[in-house]
Amino acid sequence: EAGVTQSPTHLIKTRGQQATLRCSPISGHTSVYWYQQALGLGLQFLLWYDEGEERNRGNFPPRFSGRQFPNYSSELNVNALELEDSALYLCASSSLMAGDNEQFFGPGTRLTVL
Amino acid sequence: LAKTTQPISMDSYEGQEVNITCSHNNIATNDYITWYQQFPSQGPRFIIQGYKTKVTNEVASLFIPADRKSSTLSLPRVSLSDTAVYYCLVGDSPGGYQKVTFGIGTKLQVIP
Question: Hey, is the C-beta of A4 within 8 angstroms of any chain B C-beta?
C-alpha cells in the first residue's frame, strides 16, 4: 500500500514569492493535515481538510491557505513568503472511520526562503 | 486541549529499557493519549495509543495511572535505531488532534 506522498521534496523561493506544496493521502483516507516544523521546533498544526472542506485551522496568518480536491489530495499555498516560513512542511492523512485517528505522515517538503 | 510536558532530551545505553514520562494535568474525560516517533528528516510515525491502565504492542508499552494526569512510554531494550524524537499527544479521537501542537518532544539518544 502506497504511503502519503508529497511534492516537491525541496523548494527554494525568495521573499515575497508564493509557494505551492502538494500532498497525496493514503488511498481511502479522506482527511489531510498540514504541519510546519521549523528548525529546532516541534510540529505546529496548520490546517485540516476532510471531504473537501477545511475543518480546522492553526494559529497561522491568512497567507497560509490550502484546499482539498475531490480525489482527497491537497495543496498548501503560502503567499508573500517570509524568511521565517523556511521549514519542513509535513502532510498527514487519516481515516476518520478508524477509531484511533492515527495520522500517517509523508516525507515532507523542505521549503527554503531566501 | 490538554497541554503536555515531557523532558527535552534523554540518553540511554543500548539494551536498556527507556521510560519517557509525559505530564498532562488537564486531560479531559474523552481524551486519548498517543505517542509518535520521528526520525531526522522524516515525518512522525504512530507508536501507541491508550486511554487508561496499560497498553502493549510489538514496539512499546504505555502505562497510564488511574488519574490519567501522566503517562509513560516504555521502550524495551533500546537499540541505536531507536534514536529519535518522541512526541506525546492528548486529544479526543477523532477530532481532538486536529489543532494539537506536537511540541518539541523528547529527543532520545541511544549510546552504544
Answer: yes
